[in-house]
């Protein structure tokens, strides 16, 4: 798919749009049938002070950076034929 085939003006806009989709999935769509972390539990945990949005965002950032590093290592190994 090329950028011209989308409603996005830049790759940055596309990435941020996908991030918004992931947040919606995390808060709503993935919770509808989840028996462990049910719909509304995240919002309740934030409201009660059990967790903050900053904690979740910081953890998400660390996981994203780790995943990018791991993907980079895999790409480098592929280039070396490992």
Structure annotation, total helices? 3
Radius of gyration: 17 Å
* Major pleated sheet: none
| Total number of beta strands | 0
Query: What coarse outline follows from CA principal-axis ratios?
Result: extended
Q: Strand content of the residues, in percent? A: under 5%
In the predicted model, the low-confidence regions spanning at least 5 consecutive residues are: none
Helix amount? 55-70%
First-residue to last-residue Cα separation: 29 Å
Secondary-structure element pattern, one letter each: HHH
- How many structural domains in the coordinates? 2
Mean residue pLDDT: 89
Briefly note the structural class of the backbone: mainly alpha
Concise overview:
With 82 residues, this protein is an all-alpha fold.
How would you characterize the overall build of this protein?
The chain folds into two domains: 1-51, no CATH class; 52-82. The chain starts with 10 loop residues before the first helix and ends with a helix. It is 67% helix and 0% strand. The model has no long low-confidence stretch (mean pLDDT 89). The protein is mostly helical and 82 residues long.
Task: Explain the layout of strands and helices.
Blueprint: H1 11-29, H2 41-48, H3 53-80
Structural key phrases:
single chain, mainly alpha, 2 domains, 67% helix
